[in-house]
């Protein structure tokens, strides 16, 4: 941007840009989570399954779906929805709040965003802000993801199954302590680059499309463009960081070996830590094991990510157009 140009900086609707973006992120998270939870459930079942690498992915996904329907019925596809909603709302809300706040600190206390929604920061600053926000969010929301993983990898009739989010948090805290609530944190932190890479790509594409609006005009982009930018940035980040999600799910599953003799049930083994996960997966499942569930993940995260970002951008745009502070 040229020196001396008069640019319209973003104003706040609630009194805090971080809160504006947090509320917009939560709105997007609620809609996408409810709509695409069944795919998330199947994805987690495949992530923890130690089936040999020779088995067809679609076959495993179909068997997992049939097993869920056979044991818990159609409602079984929404098992763990409460924990998933809590985790996604907390994660997206916290992430956007931290991300916006960190960007403003990088802008030395000024708004890091123009009224149009374009960022004033560099790609490296977006990467650092996204990764830092991801690490902070992961540390705060990890207990919710542990409960979600354990509910999604059990049926309601399993002896060790949790009755819900709060029952899961209580049982883990009472039986395994704080360490139990933070299982899978290490690979989760390894995956914080995901948010940084995604938002770096997304912000740069958005800035490129808004680049000719040097007067800071607040006219939003068409929804199709937001959809294309959010999906392409998500694929870019997911392809690089997906193995960390698989390893996190393996560490967050219920302790001890689980059933392996029922068709469609996830075949799980116990792990002692991140190094043990890497060794066992590399030895018995190969590189493809680190990408288990990637197909359902794409089917879930692409439309889910598009919905999240469309809702987010529309809510954020409403806040911008009605901002007075």
From TrEMBL:
Compartments reported by the entry: Membrane
Tagged with keyword Transmembrane helix: yes
GO-annotated biological processes: nucleotide transport; transmembrane transport
Main subcellular location: membrane
Keyword Transport among record annotations: yes
Stated family: Belongs to the mitochondrial carrier (TC 2.A.29) family.
Protein name: Mitochondrial FAD carrier protein flx1
Organism: Coemansia spiralis
């Amino acid at each position: 941007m040229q020196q001396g140009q008069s640019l319209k900086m973003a104003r706040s609707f609630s009194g805090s840009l971080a809160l504006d973006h947090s509320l917009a992120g939560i709105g997007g998270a609620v809609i996408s989570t409810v709509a695409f939870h069944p795919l998330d459930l199947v994805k987690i079942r495949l992530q923890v399954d130690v089936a040999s690498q020779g088995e067809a992915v679609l076959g495993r996904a179909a068997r997992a779906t049939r097993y869920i329907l056979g044991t818990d019925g159609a409602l079984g596809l929404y098992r763990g929805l409460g924990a998933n909603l809590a985790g996604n709302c907390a994660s997206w809300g916290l992430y956007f709040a931290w991300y916006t706040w960190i960007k403003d600190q990088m802008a030395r206390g000024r708004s890091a965003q123009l009224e149009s929604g374009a960022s004033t920061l560099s790609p490296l600053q977006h990467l650092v802000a996204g990764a830092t926000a991801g690490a902070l969010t992961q540390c705060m929301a990890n207990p919710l993801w542990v409960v979600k993983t354990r509910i999604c990898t059990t049926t309601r009739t399993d002896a060790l199954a949790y009755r819900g989010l709060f029952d899961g948090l209580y049982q883990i805290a009472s039986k395994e302590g704080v360490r139990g609530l933070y299982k899978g944190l290490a690979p989760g932190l390894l995956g914080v680059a995901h948010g940084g890479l995604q938002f770096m790509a997304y912000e740069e594409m958005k800035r490129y499309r808004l680049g000719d609006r040097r007067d800071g005009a607040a006219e939003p982009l068409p929804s199709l463009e937001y959809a294309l930018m959010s999906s392409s940035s998500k694929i870019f980040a997911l392809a690089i960081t997906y193995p960390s999600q698989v390893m996190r799910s393996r560490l967050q599953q219920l302790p001890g070996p689980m059933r392996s003799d029922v068709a469609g049930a996830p075949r799980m083994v116990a792990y002692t830590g991140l190094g043990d996960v890497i060794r066992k997966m590399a030895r018995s499942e190969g590189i493809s094991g680190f990408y288990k569930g990637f197909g359902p993940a794409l089917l879930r995260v692409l439309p889910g990510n598009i919905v999240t970002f469309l809702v987010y951008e529309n809510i954020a745009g409403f806040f911008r157009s009605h901002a007075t502070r």
